[in-house]
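Box 3.1. Reading complex inputs
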Amino acid sequence: MSEEKKDELKPSVSFIEQFIIDDLKDGKNNGRIHTRFPPEPNGYLHIGHAKAICLDFGMAEKHGGKCNLRFDDTNPVKEDVEYIDSIKEDIHWLGFGWDDREFYASDYFGKLFEFAIDLIKRGLAYVDDQPADVISSQKGTPSQPGTMSPFRSRSAAESLDLFYRMNEGEFEEGSHVLRAKIDMASPNMHMRDPIIYRILKTPHHRTGDTWKVYPMYDFAHGQSDYFEGITYSLCTLEFEVHRPLYDWLVDQLKTSDYRPRQIEFNRLNLTYTMMSKRKLLELVQEKKVSGWDDPRMPTLCGLRRRGYTPESIRRFIDLIGYTKVEAINDVSLLEYAIREDLNLRSPRVFGVLDPLKVVITNYPADKVEEMEIINNPEDESKGTRKVPFCNEVFIERDDFMEDPPHKFFRLAPGTEVRLKGAYIVKCESFRKNESTGIIEEVYCTYDPATRSGSGSEKKVKGTLHWVSARHAIDAEVRLYDRLFDHEDPAGQKDDDYRNFLNPGSLKVLTGCKLEPSLKTAKKLEKFQFQRLGYFCVDYDSTEAHPVFNRTVSLKDTWAKVNK
RNA sequence: UGUCCCGUAGUGUAAUUGGCAACACGUCUGAUUCUGGAUCAGAAGAGUUCAGGUUCGAGCCCUGACGGGACAACCA
């Protein structure tokens, strides 16, 4: 496509960005834009969170605003400091920062408590002494109105006294709750006198045992937004029905024209995986994966360990967009994003996963040549390196066939291929173990006139990667595939997602042969193993025992043709 | 028998105040290539869930169906 035509394409913005642009134009909030990213510290961030992060931080960045990091830590039972550092690390890794604006909903427990007291005094909240199941049954159903609690009409003074005593620790968990007095007949369930405070005696990871009552999400989120001067509170679609309650609470709180606006967008769904933090935690606890950072997990730390770059994830998020349509995105688009990124940046190296020895019978046994190999054909500035070559090399086992099919451009009896960066060789014979049928060695002759870079005109159809048998280093290579073999493992009503775990999602290969330059590769360093795919150094890797993870394979049209 | 949200190529998104349905991925050709990768050139694929209405003109506005989703945690 020409530059001109590219320029003609109008930059399209999401419906949310359009709201922001319009507000800015109207001078709303004095042209101020302030968002927040509000994770609950009860698990690791996954790629779905990345979608929210890119929007929250991205919109602020793009339009000259700010984005706060705010931990939504209103439930000490589920939350833990363990998660806080990892969440911060992952956001930084993606390339976003929040300066000194690191906040916690628990920072506002005092103000929230005061606000609750204010509501009680104004007759807009009351303490309910009924147990959970009774309160629940009085809520009615989505199609039937609820009925009022007998405690709804009790005096403000009595509620106030009870609420204070709830926080003193005088009552057991579950014995009393504070409810907003709104409308038990509302068609919106969330408006039927929602519970706004409950008694919890588990110590909080930040406030210890200062509090015995904790605000519910709905009573903390909008108010926290308000306290921080947030202008756009962006969240996923399932909070749409909460918006009237969000607005109702802000209405009771606000003292000026300013108010934060909640806007909902579609959450990210990816094929062959799931985003439920609860279920991902189960996978970890049940040891179905090695941990939160297992390279098969959709977590950011998992993707990082798998070899994904933050740029590729941001590019992916950019490609899928933000709408109100509940969609399921194809993982192949994520794979496209990482291939596109790594194709440009990663050095090419030789690695043989399933080695088959080739002996070059007319090459002197005591000779070693240092072949000069281009590091990255996409980037000349990356230069070249020397790779040793001798009379014994390993090639990929499936690059040789005794009896090849049509259009097999690789090695077979009597055929010629180029060993990339070295010579053209011809297969003269091979040795096969007749009882097992396994090919043990292949014998070739090379043509000295075809050395790469010598200007040889000779062309062959196939080019193979190879590693000198005498110089290769041994490595473990972990081949990863999708964790589930069902497109939507968690969405099957009658089937547990565990039934769709892909038994072939991890294949561990040992005795792989890599070119010697890889010996000094650093953790997470990324390479293209020529003709195979993109790989990175795993955390488990040591110089004595290198371990590589396959991030994603190269596109393989030959494999497709053979299906 | 509720309320709210959403229906545009296989998938994900576009389409300024109504004006020839566009882009990306995927798919398929061909060229090129010392990676069966990459790159380049090209093709196929929806007439916008359906039915009415308003209009010179509707993917966009209105009405009604149909389909999908959310909502009845002392979770977020």
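In summary: The longest helix of chain A spans residues 47-62.
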